[in-house]
Amino acid sequence: MSTKGSCACGDIEYQFTGEPKVTALCHCIDCQKWTGGAFTSNAVVPRESFSVTKGKPNTWDAVGASGKINKHFFCPRCGSSLYTELEVMPDVTCVKAGGLDGGAASLGNKIDVEFYTKDRAGYLGASEGAKQEPQFG
Ligand SMILES: [Zn+2]
Ligand SMILES: [Zn+2]
């Protein structure tokens, strides 16, 4: 079984097979800046299960709190935030769930963990049942 996603303009398409290892919200400032939203929702999937099937994303590197590179992939035409690959987590791809198609953007309404809750907007509550991490891990 594969889950498909795409950018807003349709130039980029991607997919992953199997279930996400983890579903996570991230409230960090970087995620807010990059997406223009209050947080990112993420399907964290094994990197070998993920592939871009159409187009070629652009990338942008940020240095994370760890001092390691956090590589951001986005559509060069419409700018949609697609996924990140963190040097500190070399085995996984963090797919930004808002791009997932066919209802998968909701991540099954089951969030395993929330990161950077210290930066969470005051109008948002904790997702029920999600582990709460003030920063990253
Ligand atoms: Zn696009
Ligand atoms: Zn973040």
Query: Which blocks of ≥5 consecutive residues have pLDDT under 50?
Result: none
- Looking at the structure, the CATH topology is Metal Binding Protein, Guanine Nucleotide Exchange Factor, Chain A
The count of helical stretches stands at: 1
Q: For the largest sheet, list the strands in their spatial order.
A: 6-7-8-9-4-3-10-11
Q: Strand fraction band?
A: 35-45%
Distance between the termini: 29 Å
Query: Helix/strand-derived class?
Result: mainly beta
Order of helices and strands: EEEHEEEEEEEE
| Number of E strands | 11
Radius of gyration: 14 Å
CATH architecture: Beta Complex
Summed over residues and divided by their number, the pLDDT gives a mean of 96
Tell me about the largest β-sheet.
8 strands, mixed
Query: What is the count of distinct domains?
Result: 1
Helix content bin: under 10%
Structure description:
- The chain has 137 residues and is mostly beta strands.
- It has a single domain, classed as Metal Binding Protein, Guanine Nucleotide Exchange Factor, Chain A.
- 5% of the residues lie in helices and 40% in strands.
- The strands form two sheets. Strands 6-7-8-9-4-3-10-11 form an eight-stranded mixed beta sheet. A three-stranded antiparallel beta sheet has the order 1-2-5, with no helix packed on it.
- A hairpin with a 6-residue loop joins β7 (69-74) and β8 (81-86).
- The longest helix has 7 residues, at 29-35.
- One zinc ion binds at residues 7-9, 11-12, 75, 77-78, 80.
- The site of one zinc ion has 6 residues, from α1.
In short:
The protein has 137 residues and is mainly beta. It is built from one helix and eleven strands.
